[in-house]
Amino acid sequence: MEKLIITAAICGAEVTKEQNPAVPYTVEEMVKEAKAAHEAGAAILHIHVRKDDGTPTQDRERFREVMDAIRKELPDVIMIPSTGGAAGMSPEERLQPTELFPEMATLDCGTCNFGDDIFDNTMPTMRAFGKRMLENNIKPEYECFELGHLDTILTMAKKGEVPGAPMQFNFVLGVNGCTPATAENLAFFVKKIPAGSTWTVTGVGRGAFPMAAAAIPMGGNVRVGFEDNIYLGKGHKAASNAELVEKVVRLAKELGREVATSAEAREILSLKPLKK
Questions:
Q1: 201 bridge partner residues
Q2: Which of 93, 98, 142, 201 lies at a CB distance of 3.0 to 4.6 Å from 215, suitable for a disulfide?
Q3: Is residue 1 part of a domain?
Q4: Phi-psi label, residue 243: left if phi above 0, alpha if psi -120 to 50, beta otherwise
Q5: For 141-184, how does the pLDDT look when each residue is reduced to its tens digit (9 = 90+)?
């Protein structure tokens, strides 16, 4: 079994300091959380950015500022900027991080309920995102919240509308209004992906660590972080993203699976080595 790739989603677009004071907003806070999460065992950083007051933004220059600052401190880390943005953002607004030519970026695979909001990803939107990633040589991480999302993106890949094999999927389970975070649902998703694909699971809220515990012996990978869950355990808020990563590392150790470095994750995901 390949080593476990841990992704840290360090701030997201929705969670606030009112919910957990450790949520990073500023560039300096983002770098601090990124470094700590990486040192704890995260090979990948999933990047959203905020204005200094916490307002979510997809501004290209804010992404450049944050990612350059992180790269200066963590030259080998894999960064996956979000093209999901926040509710209500236009596709053109959401696509801005792809103008920076990152090695990976997220591609959301369909419209769904997202709590009280609707996360809008029409077929034309997904085609436009796929076209941009093909043109800019970006490997997508395909974000699937529902089973239909997986079937949709596989059909698009067969048509050449989005990058194809080897594909990386992230199964986001436990969002209010979407697929519940259960081991049974996770196993069903995993059975549907093409041979040679890699996959990660993101358990939202209370599903975070049950999904991690399910994925580790299945050979999958795990995402944790303040974007998805701010608690280390029931009633116990995490003091940092690093604490959430450390808990996954402990689970992996108990289950007998080694944790991948960024260089090892890059090889597992079929990414090119970074130029020194």
A1: 171, 222
A2: 201
A3: no
A4: alpha
A5: 999 999 999 999 999 999 999 999 999 999 999 999 999 999 99
Asked if 153 and 180 count as a contact pair (C-beta separation under 8 A), the reply is no
Give burial (CB, 10 Å; 0-12/13-18/19+) of 137: exposed
Q: How many domains does the chain have?
A: 1
Rg (CA), the chain: 17
Overall pTM > 0.90: yes
Q: Which domain holds residue 72?
A: 6-268
Q: pLDDT per residue over 83-96, tens digit each? A: 999 888 999 999 99
Q: Which two tokens stand for residue 50?
A: 């905020």
Is 276 part of any domain? no
Q: What is the CATH number of the domain that holds 139?
A: 3.20.20.70
Determine, yes or no, domain membership for 142.
yes
Q: Which helix (H) or strand (E) holds 131?
A: helix 123-135
- For 18, 107, 170, 200, 219, the CA distances from 215, given in Å and listed in that order, are 31, 21, 12, 8, 6
The answer to whether residue 273 sits within a structural domain is no
Q: Given its phi and psi angles, is residue 115 left (phi above 0), alpha (psi -120 to 50 degrees) or beta?
A: left
Alpha-carbon dihedral sign for residues 236, 240, 244, 247:
negative
